[in-house]
Design brief:
Oligomer: single chain
Number of strands: 25
Distance between the termini: 25 Å
Helix content: 25-40%
Radius of gyration: 25 Å
Number of domains: 3
Shape: globular
CATH architecture of the largest domain: Alpha-Beta Complex
CATH superfamily of the largest domain: DNA methylase specificity domains
Largest sheet: 4 strands, antiparallel
Number of helices: 11
CATH class of the largest domain: Alpha Beta
């Protein structure tokens, strides 16, 4: 039922759009004019982990691809919508810092028609769960990469209130956005502080007093050793049993693949294999073994890596890394997370679903290794910081859930806002 004063519209009828340009990756460089790629976006904005740029002379005649602050862009390829950071159809607003950047291929800028729909209301609608569900009904492709067409995207139907009511709804939601942004900033600051501390602890530049003096420039602390990763770990590859043979599946062993990885701890799985399946087509990663994605979707400039909390089977896109006696597996995971940017430079084909990590180059890296007791103290400190960050994330989750519930009511007209006569006349 359409609320009084509202109308039902198609997305394509209330916007204009501009597709991204297919910039050649061979022209990318470390300075110049920024190019915004899908891999530069997270669920809410544009990040600066591994930005790419282009010479100004290579952008002549491409003014229509320039982005401005508050522009809304959508991804037309990505993962399935349950992975919010990389989902196809993900809507992002361009922040002030990236005004003047250029829009890359597989992204599309959606431009609200004046007097029909406001930019803020359009963005709220594109962030609604109803829109995400609609996207999930359209996606096609394999587990690592799915896509949608603009024709399908623009066929989305939704309820549109009057212009003054749109503005009022956006104002209400913006108060929630500010509260959410405050907590997100708190989490980001916490992450940056933790990362800086991790880098100091893992190089010996900062130490616990009972273990000795910090390292001098260019040296290791007393009692530490420099080891090659390959010398303190053992590696194994996984596999996939035949999906045609049911005796290999529906067993009791959790089976992990690129599409089932969640965060840095793999304690749940949607798929299970049997003992027979393990014998013919997979490998077992023991509890406290590290699982590292070496082939597949390496989005947001992160290397998916985590530690198993129980025995898990895994597919051919992952490697299991077992820590030898000289290194604690949780310390090894901390080292991986601390060196995320370095590892990203070892990835080739970083397009969605196409990333491949050079494991031989990775195994050749040096690790500054403290004694086991000092490793444990470092792990304990990092764990305490993780617990604090987890508290902030729970607060953020609560705010997001409350905002979603309010959005669902406001964007469907189940809860109406009051618009005074002056606001209505000025519209």
């Amino acid at each position: 039922m359409v609320p009084n004063g509202w109308s039902e519209v198609k997305l394509g009828n209330v916007i204009k759009h501009q597709k991204g340009y297919a910039f050649k990756s061979k022209l990318y460089q470390e300075n110049g004019l920024r190019i915004v790629r899908i891999s530069d976006t997270n669920r809410n904005s544009v990040h600066d982990k591994c930005p790419v740029y282009i010479e100004p002379e290579n952008t002549k005649g491409l003014d229509s691809y320039i982005l401005q602050e508050e522009d809304i862009i959508l991804s037309t390829v990505g993962s399935r919508p349950h992975l919010l950071e990389s989902m196809v159809g993900k809507a992002v607003k361009i922040p002030k810092k990236d005004s003047g950047s250029f829009l890359n291929q597989n992204l599309v800028k959606v431009i609200p028609k004046k007097g029909v729909i406001t930019n803020d209301y359009l963005f709220s609608m594109l962030k609604n769960d109803t829109f995400n569900y609609f996207i999930s009904t359209l996606v096609r492709g394999n587990a690592n990469q799915v896509s949608i067409t603009l024709a399908e995207l623009f066929a989305y139907r939704f309820l549109l209130p009057s212009h003054p009511e749109q503005t009022k709804i956006a104002q209400i939601l913006s108060t929630w956005d500010k509260a959410i942004a405050t907590v997100e900033k708190l989490i980001e600051n916490s992450k940056q502080q933790k990362k800086a501390l991790m880098q100091q602890l893992l190089t010996g530049k900062k130490r616990f007093k009972e273990f000795g003096e910090p390292a001098k420039d260019g040296e290791l602390p007393d009692g530490w050793a420099s080891e090659k990763l390959v010398d303190i770990t053992s590696w194994s590859s996984g596999g996939t049993p035949s999906k045609q043979n049911k005796t290999y599946w529906d067993g009791h062993i959790p089976w992990i693949s690129a599409s089932t990885m969640r965060g840095h701890a793999f304690d749940t799985s949607d798929l299970f294999i049997s003992e027979e399946g393990l014998k013919v087509g997979s490998r077992l990663a023991p509890k406290d073994g590290l699982l590292l994605l070496v082939r597949g979707s390496m989005l947001w400039n992160k290397i998916p890596v985590g530690i198993a909390k129980r025995d898990l089977a895994f597919n051919q896109d992952l490697k299991c890394i077992r820590a030898k006696d000289s290194i604690n597996p949780h310390y090894l995971l901390t080292w991986f997370l601390c060196n995320e940017n370095k590892l990203m430079h070892m990835v080739t084909g970083t397009g969605i679903g196409a990333g491949k990590l050079d494991t031989s180059e990775l195994q050749a890296l040096d690790i500054a290794l403290p004694p086991k007791q000092e490793q444990l103290r470092i792990i304990e400190l990092i764990s305490s910081l993780d617990a604090s960050e987890s508290g902030h994330k729970k607060n953020l989750d609560c705010l997001n859930l409350e905002k979603k519930a309010l959005m669902q009511q406001l964007l469907t007209g189940k809860r109406r806002v009051k618009v005074n006569a002056n606001e209505a006349m000025s519209a």
